[in-house]
Amino acid sequence: MPVITIDLGTMANKEKKGELVQALTEAASTVTQIPAEKFIVFIKEMDRDNIGVGGKLLSDTIK
Amino acid sequence: MPVITIDLGTMANKEKKGELVQALTEAASTVTQIPAEKFIVFIKEMDRDNIGVGGKLLSDTIK
Amino acid sequence: MPVITIDLGTMANKEKKGELVQALTEAASTVTQIPAEKFIVFIKEMDRDNIGVGGKLLSDTIK
Amino acid sequence: MPVITIDLGTMANKEKKGELVQALTEAASTVTQIPAEKFIVFIKEMDRDNIGVGGKLLSDTIK
Amino acid sequence: MPVITIDLGTMANKEKKGELVQALTEAASTVTQIPAEKFIVFIKEMDRDNIGVGGKLLSDTIK
Amino acid sequence: MPVITIDLGTMANKEKKGELVQALTEAASTVTQIPAEKFIVFIKEMDRDNIGVGGKLLSDTIK
Question: Where is the 4-oxalocrotonate tautomerase-like domain (chains A, B, C, D, E, F) (predicted)?
Answer without folding.
Answer: 2-60
